[in-house]
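Working notes for the structural subgroup meeting. M.R. asked for a predicted model of this chain before we commit to crystallization trials. I am recording the input and output together here so anyone reviewing the notebook later can reproduce the run.

Input as submitted:
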Amino acid sequence: MVAELVRTTLRLDGGAEPGQLCRATFTGAMPDVSARKGEVSIAYKRRIELQGRETRVGLSREVPWVIDVSGGLSALRADLRHVRFHEIRVSGSVDDVDAHLGAPDGTSRVRISGNARDVVIEHPSGTPIRVSVSGGVHEIRVGREHMRDVHGTVRMASPGADSAADRFEVEVSGGARSVRVTTA
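Returned structure, recorded in token form:
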């Protein structure tokens, strides 16, 4: 018998209608969904499934978000160019992260922990950014800077990132095959 891992994909964007906090659609197993006091929770029960699952969440463009994803993913596809967020935390492991960011809201953080395969972060040109990768990385590209086979911790920053009021901070811990931070 051959067992194939089921792909779990999370897609985030600014697709909520005006006045809605968020709107979600699901393919595959239905998760437990709840919302109270401004917090939305989408949780899958841990079990073996034969089909992949995809969750699409359209977020309100009107409120700043703290997004917390735990338990592991095959792919995170985040088009947040029109979404305000303070922090995105992804813990567990994730194969592929593809995030397109808009303007930062103060210090906006992207934190990925627990091992990642390929991470791509795109941010607006001219936006200050600090990047920290720990646990080792096969290849890292931040703008025009490029490093290979880095062990331990590497930190890179755009000019003025340390003193900017509005900036991005990207942190990848636990190791990664590749991390690429580019501008739009």
